[in-house]
Amino acid sequence: MKRNLIIAIICMFCYVNINSLMAQVNKSEDTLKIKNLNQITISAERIKSPLMTSPSSISIVDSSVFKTMPKSIAVDEALRLVPGVRIDNQADGSRVHMSIRGQGILSERGLRGIKVLIDGIPVNDPSGFAADLYDIDWATLNKVEVLRGPLSSIYGSSSAAGVLNIFTEDGGTKPINGTVYSSFGSNGFMKGLVQLDGTKDKINYRLSYSGMQGDGYRDHTYYKSENLSEKIKWTPTEKLSFTQTFTSTLFFNQNAEGLSIEQVRENPRQANPDAIPFNEYQKTQRNTLGLSGQYKIDDSQNIQFTGFLRATNYKETSNKAADYRYYSTRGANLQYNLTNGNDKIRNYFSLGGDYQYQNVPEHKFQSLSNPLRVDNHGESNLESDSLLANQVITQREAGVFLLDKLEFNKNLNFNFSLRYDNLHNQLDDKLISKYNLSGEKNFEKVTTRFGIGYSFCNAFNVFANIGQGFMPPATEELANNPLSNAGFNQKLVPATSVGEELGFRGEVGKNFYYDVTGFLTNTKNDFFRFKLTPSRGNQEVFYGNAGDSRRYGVETSIAYSPVKDLTLRAAYTFSDFKYTSPDSIKDHYLPNSPVHQLEADVEYRFLKHFVVGVSYEMQSKWYIFTDPKNYSITQDGFNLVNARISYEWKLWKLHGDISVFAKNLNDVSYIAFTEPDPDKNSYQPAARREIFGSLRIKF
């Protein structure tokens, strides 16, 4: 019966798509209004264009979605209605695993193959690795553009899976505006945020500070963070504009590690036996200063520029080693844009370059166990003076690109992009004992992409594209050497891919939006994760090239308001990800890739000030291991129900909302994430029913 219900739901939604560009609620009428597709401009392709004729699969998440986030602390809440994206919240906090169309599914931490930009400043390092999304306070965002598919010809090696283009809020129109936000709930969760913003003459500003903490669902999953974010937009002349940003982030999370299936059945909340005696945790301290801007030469030409400096201290403890890394990163971008033509034929041309440099001193000390340790929130751990690694990693990434868009009568677009990337990784071994493990790994690649978009009418727009992906081994993959505690993994080679898309989008009337995309991606030298025997520490993860793969699927979503004050949204993804070589794993599904994913949401506004919502989330089963010996081990999927209610209020010059959220309302016991492990400590149990409340005050 459950299977028939799932099939019925899939059939209902498989030809329609939701972007949370759905609709903003009109304050006077409280009805769903969908912006005209010609009025929605996207910038993630580096050439601004209307969504209607964009040749890419793209979803836009706006501020109305951020208000429905129970905790406003992690990307899984923000992108829940974006098809093609899978996010596993491993520790019930901000530490997540994220993939787009299966790229990056096996990262131990951080994001692989996904380009992340925050107000134009890249999060990815020169190797393409985005360590985390801790710099983002999701309560301060304006919108997120999510591009899916290989986009290496636009952004280089970091965008083989897609792009997250994130925009924080600007300041309000008055000289001084303020926001106070607080949320709290199950498993010891608390968050507070204070924000001041405004506009004075030619300066627009926003300054926010937030802090949060929580115990997590499982033992030894405590986390805490502080986030300071500052943004100033200055327009000194009509031709020149600047945006200066600064973020300071502190994030600490304990690591409970995975459990065996027997341990899950015994007590899903327990930590792995190694986690508490070794006090396994991760701590990140990071400051980022960014500057971007534009100079308008004339009505047809402009120059865009970006520069940033980033300093990061990172520490991770495990049952093998205490790892200390100190990242010093800097980067710049310059792009020239030229527009010419008339209303019938117009050409948009861009030429630019990206450059990043990073220096990473790293030290590893042998970890020691304290069997008598009582678990607490402290950061102390036992280390010997035995130095396992003392090395310096230097990385450089340089890329030049050409973009061209030819537009006919504003309803036909041809897009072309071409890019050359050169990446250099150098490791200097400072601890030369028996062997000198110094070495280098260099990669280069030319990638292209061609797309076409045509608008027959508002109700029916079609697009198609073909593009290349280039994903060389990143910092985490190279620096984890299975042959030694130091040095590069010299056996790794880049994964390359070719992706094809065909899609449709449109709006029917003013209250219905849909989007459907079919995709096919063929990848050579796909990556996989593995662990060695306990002699190297059973928490150390290594990477290899498994072989080739084929990934195809359908991404669909809708936004619909059948009657006043009622909004229906849904996103469904069908994925078929299998290896095509070598013969030992041919036709095996890629790990951590459910065939079916569905998210549906119903929201109803009543009595003018109340909003109630119910959402449903479904994922089908997935495979855990790549190797043939354990391939048949799978994890059952899950079906979750969430609910929320909020009250919007106004008192004198103050206004805001009070909300209550219930996650996993049906109290399901399920596994959020699995990972390959030779000892089969592969399972990360998810939280059961959780209740959260929030209060927002604005002036």
Salient structural properties:
699 residues; mainly beta; Maltoporin, Chain A; 39 strands; 5% helix; globular
Question: Would you write up a description of this structure?
Answer:
With 699 residues, this protein is mostly beta strands. The protein has one domain: TonB-dependent receptor, beta-barrel domain (Maltoporin, Chain A, Beta Barrel), CATH 2.40.170. The protein is 5% helix and 57% strand. The chain has six helices and 39 strands. The strands form eight sheets. It has a 22-stranded antiparallel barrel. The chain has a five-stranded mixed β-sheet with strand order 5-12-13-9-10. A two-stranded antiparallel ribbon has the order 1-2. Strand 15 and strand 16 (203-214) form a beta hairpin. The longest helix is centred in the N-terminal third of the chain and has 12 residues, at 2-13.
Brief digest:
The chain is mainly β and about 700 residues long. It is about 5% helix and about 55% strand.
